[in-house]
Amino acid sequence: MNHAAKLENSPSNKPSAEVIKAKKSLFSVMLVVLFSSAGIALPYPILAPLFLNEVSALTTFADLPSKILLGIILAIYPLGVIFGSSVLGAASGIYGRKKTLIITLVLTVIGYILSALAVIAESFLLLVLARFITGIFSGNISIAKAIAVDLSPTLDKTYTFNLVNATSYLGWLLGPLAGGLLAVYGLDTVFYFAAAALVIALLSVTRVLPSDELSSKEPTVKFRQLFSKQNSFALLANKQIRRIFLIYLLATLGLNAYYEFYPVWLVEKFDFSSPDIGYITVVLTLFMTITSVFFVKQLKYLLGLKLGAIVGMVLMALLFFLHPLLSATAVWPIYALTGVAIAIFNGLLPVYISEQYHNIEQGQLMGLITTVFSLANVLIALVGSVLALFGAHWAIIFGAILLIIAAIDFNYSQDDIR
After folding, report:
1. Separation CA 347–CA 41 (nearest Å)
2. What is the distance between the alpha carbons of residues 14 and 105, in angstroms, rounded to a whole number?
3. 105 contact partners, CB below 8 Å, separation of at least 6
4. Local confidence band at 418 (pLDDT 50, 70, 90 cut-offs)
5. Alpha helices in 96-156 (DSSP H)
């Protein structure tokens, strides 16, 4: 076969119209993930200094310790994501990805505006309610990931998934940086900024994402059945799925122990300010983004999905264990390496799950991935806030132990996928 014939029959040489349509959809999804992730991350550099260093009605509610109040605020958002993502992914498969995404984006914008009003009123309970509502509809990231998966085989699944991950990391890079810079204007301004960013994402979905291609028949699943029969937790009835998601829960508990408490540790250990936390988060997420875009796909072919995910988990754990020994200078390169490890884990383990259970509706499966990640976020925010009373590094070390357990279980209980 000559070279021209090989090119003609190459899988990458798809009909141009099909590829262009897929890339437009991917672009729209990436924009949603970018601004959604940035909106989520915007308040993070401000929350720890606010609750640890300032005295107000927000930080002294019910005379509870400020670290406990911070833990509640950190936990309530992913608790909302658990409720939302457990049904939104499945809903998008029944009622249409685009339609469901538009509705949830509108309601997320409303949630951010309500959060800003709560801060102005210095109402802790209203802020808790607003963060919960925002979390519910921010579960739409599972819809965005399902759309990216749907683009396979027109676009390679590992390629699309890691571009979406890279966009998410970029959002986590820009969000804390913007939050740190906006801190001087108050937390309410940060929430208003997040709402404005999501309006841009909403416009991109409305104008760029192709219309849903649904059957002309009425959906056989009623809306109320999404909560009882079609939610993502229903997948856990399968013993094999239950085992892999237990591993994923342990690993994401470990990862979220770091995500939630490294800002607290930086304030506690080195007296970092909001801009300082924003800058070091830029370093972390920059290396996550670079690794995801340029190296994760190559690692998949070099190591396979299973070994690659294990490498990511073990490397994260080792770097977390180093925290008590770090100096103010050493923390910067260590956080760069941590970004590399996180990108490897996030880029390979979810793809492993998607490939292993490719016959399951991907919206529901991505919903379960997002739900489990958020459940881990809630659990570790509560448990970690108690450990942090003895020092924030104990929460991070606890996360490292969980990652080692997850890596060992994954190695001995799961098949290799190449």
Report:
1. 20
2. 32
3. 32, 137, 140, 198, 201, 202, 205
4. low
5. 97-121, 124-138, 141-150
- Residues 309, 410: Cα–Cα separation, whole Å: 9
pLDDT band with cut points at 50, 70 and 90 for residue 117:
very high
Average pLDDT rounded to a whole number, residues 147-174:
82
* DSSP H or E stretch at residue 158: helix 157-182
Across residues 283-294, what is the average pLDDT?
88
Distance (Å, rounded) from C-alpha 129 to C-alpha 302? 46
- If we measure between CA atoms, which residue out of 340, 3, 359, 19 comes closest to residue 159? 19
Q: Within 13 Å, how many C-alpha atoms sit on residue 275's CB side?
A: 4
**Distance (Å, whole) CA 339 – CA 286:** 7
Cα separation, 351 vs 309, whole angstroms: 10
Check: CB of residue 305 under 8 Å from CB of residue 348.
yes
**What's the DSSP call for residue 360?**
S
**Residues 6+ away with beta carbon under 8 Å from 248:** 349, 353, 369, 372, 373, 406
Q: What would the DSSP string read from start to end of 222-291?
A: -TTHHHHTSSGGGGGGSHHHHHHHHHHHHHHHHHHHHHHHHHHHHHHHH---HHHHHHHHHHHHHHHHHH
Gyration radius of the chain over CA positions: 21
DSSP letters of 9-43? H-TT---HHHHHHHHHHHHHHHHHHHHHHHHHHTT
d(CA 336, CA 310): 19
Higher per-residue confidence, 413 vs 230: 413
Cβ atoms 352, 309 nearer than 8 A: yes
CA-CA-CA-CA dihedral for 300, 81, 142, 296, to nearest 10 = -20
Could you give the domains of the chain? 15-208+222-413 (1.20.1250.20)
- Lookup: tokens for 416: 């290799």
* 226 and 83 Cβ atoms separated by less than 8 Å: no
For residue 35, how many C-alpha atoms fall within 13 Å in the half-sphere facing its CB? 23
Please tell me the pTM assigned to this model.
0.74
What is the biggest distance separating any 2 CA atoms in the chain, rounded to whole angstroms? Answer: 78
In this structure, how many other beta carbons lie within 10 angstroms of the beta carbon of residue 83?
18
Q: Is 146 helix (H, G, I), strand (E, B) or coil?
A: helix
